[in-house]
Amino acid sequence: MADQKQLAKKIIEGVGGESNVNSLYHCMTRLRFKLKDGSKFNKSEIEQLDGVVSALESNGQYQVVIGNNVKAVHDAIMDLYDINSASSSSNTNNEKTKNPVAKLFNIMSGIITPIVPTLAGSGMLKALLVILTTYFGLSEESSTYLILSAAANAVFYFFPLALAVSAAKVYGVNIFVSLAIMGALLEPKFTGLMTEVGDIVDFAGLPIVLMGYSGQIIPAILAIWLYSYLEKFLNKVIPQVIQMFAVPMLALLIMVPLTAGLIGPFGVYVGNGIASGIDFMSSTSGMLTGAIIGAGWTFLVMFGIHWGIVPAMLQNLSTTGYDTIRPPVANATFAQAGVAFGVFLKAKDKKLKSLAISSMMPAILAGVTEPIVYGLSVRLKRPMIAAVIGGTIGGGFAGAMNTTVMAYVFPALTTLPAFMTDTFAYYVISIIIAFVLTTILTYVFGFDEGLSDKGKGETKQDSSIEGGRSTVASPMTGDIVSLDKVNDPAFSTGAMGKGVAIIPTDGKVYAPVSGKVTTLFHTKHAIGLTSNDQTEVLIHVGLDTVKLDGKHFEAYVKQDDNVEQGQLLLEFDLEAIKAEGYDVTTPIIITNSNDYTDVIETDKGSVTKEDVLLSTVSL
C-alpha cells in the first residue's frame, strides 16, 4: 500500500494538486479527473511515473491510465486527500464542456460506469444458467434455477431504478426522490393498469399511454435529467422551512405523471427505434457493420466516447434478449491481444517481451486492453495498423454471421459462456481470426524497439544504441578502479549492481546520460538518474560521505529534473573532503543490471566526461 500511496501523491501533483481536483472516479483501467484548471495537467510528468501506462485529455476529462491496479491507486488517493467522488459531485465539468457531444458522452460514462460491474456479473450468471440447463440437466422449473434466475435478472428487471440512482448522482439531485420517480412506473398498481403495451388510461382528463418500463434505459435518464431542473427550481421558490417535505412531494406530483404520460413513452419509442436500427444495419450489411466496429472500437475507447454506444448494446439486450454489437467489439479486444503476442514473439529486448506478455494476460482473461494500446500499439505504431486489420477482418466475419451475445460482458476467454448462443462457433472463429492475423501481421510488419522506451515524457535517446547495446558516459574525470577493489561491500560485492569506480581528479559531476533525475539525496553526495532508454545509473561521490550532511557539496539540479548528457549536476570540494579523511573513490553503478545480459566497463585506465564508461548489452 505504501507504493500505491507514493504513486497517488505523484499523480495528484501531476494534475495540479488537491485544490485543482473537482472530483475523481475510476473505471476498469483509468482514473478520471474533473479539474478546475486543465492547464495544470502535466501529461509528460504523469506518464513518467512507474505504474502509469498513459495520460490523456478527452472530452473535457483528464484520464490517467493505470491498468489492473487502478482501484488500489484510486483508493490510495481517496485515503490521502479530501477529494470528491465524481459519483457524488455535481456535473460541473459537463457544464464547462462546450461541445454538446462531449457532454453527452461524459454523462453516459458517469451514469453507466458504476453499474457495469453488476451488469457483467449478472450477465455471466445468466450464461452459467444456460450451461447448467443445456449440459448439466438443471430444470428450469426447479427452485434452484428460479432463485439463480432471479439473481441474474434482477439488475435487468429493475434497471430503471439503478439508472435513476446513478443519474441522480451525476446530476446532483436527491437520490431517493429519483428512485421513487422511476419506482412508480414499476409499482404493481401502475403495471396492473396495462393488459398490453399501448393501452391508454385517463389521468385527470389526460390520456396516458402505458408501456412496460422493466429493462428500459432512456426513460430513466431523460426523467432524472428533467427532474434535475425541477428540483433546482423548487429549491429556489419554496421557503426553506418547508422544503424537506414540499420539494419531494411536488417533485413526485409533477414528475411521475409527466414521466408516465410523456417522457416514458417517448424514451421507450426512442430505445426501440435504436434497437431496430441496429438490427436493420446488421441484417442489411452485417459484414460492413462488424468491420467498422472491429476496426474502430479501440479508437473510441482511447477517446472515451465508447460510452455513447454502450446504452445501445444494453437496449438491444433488454429489447431482444441478445446484442450484435458486442461480438465485433470482442474482435478489437482480441486483435490487441494479438499485438501483445506478436511483440512478445518478435522483440529481442527482455523488458519489451515482459511488458508484452504481462499486458496480454489482462486482455485475454478480463478484456482490459489499455496496457497494450498505450504500452505497445500506440508507441510502436506499426502494431496498431496490424490490430486495425485484424479487428476489421474478424469483426467483419462476426457481423456477416450475425453473431450474438446474451449478456453485457467484457470480451475475454473467461466470458465465453455469455456468447454461447446459436452463433457461438462463429464467434470463436472470429476472435481466432482477429488474434492470429494480428499476431502474424505484428511479427511481419515489425517495429522499432527503441520506440518502446519513449513515451514516458522523453523524445530523444540518452546514449548511442546499436543493436542491443547502449552506452553510459563517464560523469567525471579521473582514474578507473575496478568495483571489486572499492572499500565498501555494498559496492564491491555487486549487491547494488554492476559498474565501475573512479578516483576523481576534479570536483565536478556531469550527467552520464540524457534522462531524468530520479533520486537526489539531501546530502547531495549521491544522485540517481534514469536514462531515456531506461538505464538506471547511480553516482555515489566518495565512501561514507553521507556523514558530511551536504558539507562541501553543491547541486545544480533537483529531483525530477530532466537533464542532457554532459550537463553539470554536482560540484564538490575534492581537497576539503580528502582533508576530512574521506575516501573519494566514486562508484558508478547500473542499478538495474539484471535487466541486461551484461554490463561492460571501459578498458581505459583513466577517463574524462567525454569517454564511454559503461556499455549495457541486451539480447
UniProtKB/TrEMBL annotation:
Domain PTS EIIC type-1: 106-461
Principal location listed in the UniProt entry: membrane
Ranges where the record places region Disordered: 453-473
Enzyme class: transferase
CDD domains attached to this UniProt entry: PTS_IIA_glc, PTS_IIB_glc
Active site: C27 (phosphocysteine intermediate)
GO molecular function: transferase activity
Keywords: Cell membrane, Kinase, Membrane, Phosphotransferase system, Sugar transport, Transferase, Transmembrane, Transmembrane helix, Transport
Transmembrane segments: 115-138, 144-163, 170-186, 206-230, 288-309, 329-345, 385-412, 424-446
EC number: 2.7.1.-
Membrane topology: Multi-pass membrane protein
Coiled-coil ranges (or none): none
Name of the protein in its database record: Beta-glucoside-specific PTS transporter subunit IIABC
